[in-house]
C-alpha cells in the first residue's frame, strides 16, 4: 500500500482546477439543468415535450449537427496532412509551420468572423479567385450561405484538429513506415495499416475538439449566416438575450449539451474499436 | 572468378553536406553469403545499408541484386528485408500479425499466410506468443519476431542493422549462433552491420572493415585477424601490440628492419629506408623469454591484467601505442611492475604499416 501513497497525493494537484470548475462551471450547469426540469408545479419534462413538438426546433437541431459535422470533416481533410507534414518537418520549416498554425489563435474570433465576411462577399477574394480560374462563370455571394459558414468555421477551428494529431504523429517512430516498406507494403498500404491506426487517438481527440467547438459556436454563425439561420447555440443566445425566454434557452442549452456529449463520447468509443480492428 | 555476384554495389557514394559519408564503395556478395560491415559509428556502414534497402538515396553509384539494377526502385519493390536496430515492430499488432504483415501487403493467399506465420513462429520458438502484443515481449523475443517478420516474405537479401546491440551479453552470444544457424538453414544472403568485432568474427563468412566511408579490407574473419591490411583494420579487429619506428633497412623478399625505442625489430613490409612505419603484432603471438622468435625486446612491465582464461601483461609504451602480451597459462615467475622483462616474437607475425606523419 505504501508505494501507492505518492500517487494518491499527486491527485491533490488537480484540486485547484476541480474547485474552479465546480464553482464556475458545474454549479451553474446544475442550476440550468434544474430550471429546465422543474416547473412552477414541481418536476416536469413539459419543457422538452414542448420543445420537441415544434418542427422548427428539429430544423435547428438538424442545422447544428449538419454544420458541426461538415466543419469537422473539412478540418480533418485539411488538417490531417498538415499534421503529418508538421511532424516530419525539421528546423526552420517546422517552426514556421507551427507559428502559422498557432499564431491565428491569438486573433479573436469576432475579428476573424468579420474578416471572413469580407472574404466571402460577392466581390470578395474567394469569388474573384473562382471566377478568375474559370470555376465560376460569374461572382456569387458565399456570405450568408452554409458553404461560407463551413469554410469560415473550419478556418477558425483548424488548429484544434492539427495539434492533437501532430502530438500523436510526432511520437510515431519513422522506422515503422520504413519497416513496412521493406516488407513490400506500398505507401498507401503503409498509411492504411500503420500510420492511420497509430494516429487514431489523435484523430479522435482532434475530431472531438472541433466537433464540440463547432456544435456550440455562436459568434461565427451569427456573423456569417445571420438571424434567419439558427443553431442550438444561436437559439440559446437569442432566447436569453433577445426573447427573454429563459425556459426555451434552458431547453436548447440542455439539448445541445446532451447531443454534444453523446456524440463525442459515442464517436470516441466507435473509433477506438475501428482503430483496434484495422 | 565467379560469374556476376548476387549483390553488386558499385561506386556507392553519399554526402550529407559535411564531407563524404560513403566514398565510392564497391562490394560484391555471393548468394547465401553472410557479410558483416564492421566499423566505428560514423564510418558509413548504416548509410550503406539504407542505400541497399532503398531507404536512403545514394548520390552516385549502382546497386544490382540478382541481375537486376535496383538503384532506382522504391524500397517496397526491392525484395530486401531489414531488421532494424530498435526492431521497429508494429506496436498495434500482435506477434503473428507482425510476421504476417509483409505477406498481407503483397496480397498472398490466406492459407499461405497462416502456414508461413506458423512455420516462422515455430522456427523462432514463439508459437505460444502468436496472439500476444509485441509490446509485452522481452528484448530478445522482439528481436526474434523482427527477424521472422523480415524473413517471412522470403526476401532475396536480408539486412541487419546492429540487431544485438540492445541485448545483454549472455543472451547476445546464444542469439548470434541461433541467427547464424537459421540463416544458413534458409540459405539467406545477409548483410550485417555492427561495430562489435567479436560479433563480426563469430558470425561472418566475410567481413568488410569500414572506416571513413570506405571499405579498408574485405576478407574472411581469419584472414583479417591474421593479416590486417591497414593500421585501422589492425587496431579495430582484435587487440594488437603496436610500435612506431623508422625503417633502417630492407631486404628484397619483403621484410624491413625498423629502428624503434625498443631496439631494431624486423617485420613484413616493403618500405624505403627512412619511412616512418607502425609495427603491429597480435599480443598472443608474443612470448616471455627469448623462445618466441628473432625479434627480441626488453620493455618495462607496467601492469598484469587477469582475464580468466587469458592473462595480459602491459608494458610501458615508448609512444602512445599499446605494448602488451596475452598468454593463456601461467605467468613466468618473478614478474614485477617497473622491471624490464625480456619478450620475443616472430618476424613473420610482425607487420609493418605506413605511419601517417602528423
Layout of secondary structure:
The complex is a heterodimer of chains A (278) and B (358).
Chain A: H1 5-10, H2 15-37, E1 38-39, E2 42-43, H3 46-53, H4 55-88, H5 91-102, H6 109-119, H7 125-132, H8 146-169, H9 174-182, H10 187-215, H11 219-224, H12 232-241, H13 246-277
Antiparallel strand pairs in A: 1-2
Chain B: E1 7-15, E2 20-29, E3 34-38, H1 45-53, E4 60-65, E5 68-69, E6 80-83, H2 95-105, H3 110-123, H4 139-151, E7 157-161, H5 169-186, E8 189-194, H6 197-203, E9 206-211, E10 214-219, H7 221-226, H8 231-236, E11 241-251, E12 255-260, E13 263-268, E14 276-281, E15 287-288, E16 295-297, E17 301-306, E18 311-315, E19 323-327, E20 343-345, E21 351-354
Parallel strand pairs in B: 3-8, 3-9, 6-7, 7-8
Antiparallel strand pairs in B: 1-2, 1-4, 4-5, 9-10, 11-12, 11-14, 12-13, 14-21, 15-20, 16-20, 17-18, 18-19
Overall description:
The complex is a heterodimer of chains A (278) and B (358). Chain A is an all-alpha fold and 278 residues long. Chain A has 13 helices and two strands. Chain A has helices at residues 5-10, 15-37, 46-53, 55-88, 91-102, 109-119, 125-132, 146-169, 174-182, 187-215, 219-224, 232-241, 246-277; strands at 38-39, 42-43. Chain A has a two-stranded antiparallel ribbon with strand order 1-2. In chain A, α4 crosses α10 (187-215), α9 runs antiparallel to α10 and α10 (187-215) packs antiparallel against α13. The longest helix of chain A is centred in the first third of the chain and has 34 residues, at 55-88. Chain A is globular and about 70 Å long. Chain A starts with a helix and ends with a helix. Chain B is α+β, with helices and mostly antiparallel strands and 358 residues long. Chain B has two domains: 7-230, P-loop containing nucleotide triphosphate hydrolases (Rossmann fold, 3-Layer(aba) Sandwich), CATH 3.40.50; 239-354, OB fold (Dihydrolipoamide Acetyltransferase, E2P) (Beta Barrel), CATH 2.40.50.100. Chain B has helices at 45-53, 95-105, 110-123, 139-151, 169-186, 197-203, 221-226, 231-236, and strands at 7-15, 20-29, 34-38, 60-65, 68-69, 80-83, 157-161, 189-194, 206-211, 214-219, 241-251, 255-260, 263-268, 276-281, 287-288, 295-297, 301-306, 311-315, 323-327, 343-345, 351-354. In chain B, a hairpin with a 2-residue loop joins β4 and β5 (68-69). In chain B, α2 packs across α3 (110-123) and α2 runs parallel beside α4 (139-151). The interface between A and B is medium-sized, with 19 and 29 residues.
